[in-house]
Amino acid sequence: MTGDPLILYIPGLKPKPEPFLHRRQLFRCLLEGVRRLDPKIAAQMEDRDDCFEIVAWTYDFYGTHRDIGLDQEDINDVLTRFAASDAEKAIASSWQRQSLRWLFRVADFLPFTIPKLATEELEVHLRDLHRYAKNRQGGADAAREKLQASLRQAAGQGRKVLLLAHSMGSVIAYEVLWQLTQEGDESIELALLVTMGSPLGQKLIQRNLLSYGSSGDQRFPANIRHWINLAAVGELTAIDSKLRNDFGEMIARGLVANIDDREMYNYYHMHGALNVHAEYGYLINEVTASIVRDWWCEQTESSAQNPDSV
User: What Å distances lie between residue 122 and 11, 79, 129, 267, CA to CA?
Assistant: First the structure.
C-alpha cells in the first residue's frame, strides 16, 4: 500500500528554532498559502499532520537554536498579507539592489574581489559556506546524513516525496541526491524537487560540490523526476536565479524531465525591513503554494486510482 505523500523541507544556513517550533511555523505559512488557493486541499494536508516534515540539521552545525520569539511577530504579520505591494516590488527591483546583485555576480567569477565587496551578511554566508565545503568537524556529512535518513525512511514507507529546499538546503539536497545516485540506490526517486532562493547557480558553489570533477552522467543526480527552481526578485543569495542554464545538461541526458525556473516576489519583513530571501515568505507565497497544491492533488488522485501501488 502506498504511503501518504510527504512534503520534506530542508532549511538553509544560520541557526533555526527548535525543530518542533520551527516546523509549526513553517507549516502554518505553507498551509495558509495553500488555503488561499484551495481550502479543501489545505484541510486535507492539515488533517494529515505528518505530511510535512523538516530536516533539522542546523543545530548540529552551529550548536545553538534561534529563539522563535525573534521571528513570531514577523511570521504573524506575513500571514495577514496576500501579495507584495507596489512599494515592496520597487524595493526588490531597485537599481541599488540590481547593482549589488551584479557586483556579487562579478565577485562569483573573480573571487579575489569578494573581500572588497562583502557586506557583513555576505561575510557570514561565505564563512559558513567555507565551513560546510571543508566539512569542518563533520558538519557537512552530518547534514547530508540527516536528509539521507529522511529520504530512506520515506522510501521504506512507500511515500512519494516533494523535497522543498531553501537556500543552502538546496546544495545539501543536490549533493545527497547525487550521492544516492552514485551508490546505485534506485529505491529513492523524488517526484519533485523545489529549490527556493538557491545559490546553486553560483560558480563558487559549483566548484565545491561533491560532484565537481566528475564527467558525463556521473556529474549529476539521476533520481529527480521534475525540478522547479524559485527565486525572489532582488535575491542576493540566488544571484544567478536561473538554474536550467547550469544544469540543463541533465535534461539532455534524460536524467530529469525538466528544470523550470520561476520568479516571484517575497513580501516577508524582518524587523521592519523587506527580506526577500526569508523562508517563511517563500512558503506562504502563492507561487510555492500552487506548486504544492498541484503536486498534492496529483499524488492523492494517483493513490485513489491505484490503492495497491507501491
Answer: 18, 28, 10, 21
Report the number of distinct structural domains present in the chain: 1
Q: Which of 69-78, 206-215, 220-229 has the lowest mean pLDDT?
A: 206-215
The pLDDT of 187-215, averaged and rounded, is: 91
The pTM (predicted TM-score) of the whole model is 0.91
Q: Cα dist. 130→122, 184, 214, 310 in Å?
A: 12, 29, 21, 41
Domain hosting residue 145, numbered range: 6-305
State the Cα angle at 179 between 174 and 180, rounded to 5°.
Answer: 100
* CA-based nearest residue to 30, from 65, 73, 75, 93: 75
Amino acid identity of 74? D
Name the 3-class secondary structure at 164.
strand
Give the three cell numbers for residue 183.
551508490
Q: Do the domain assignments include residue 1?
A: no
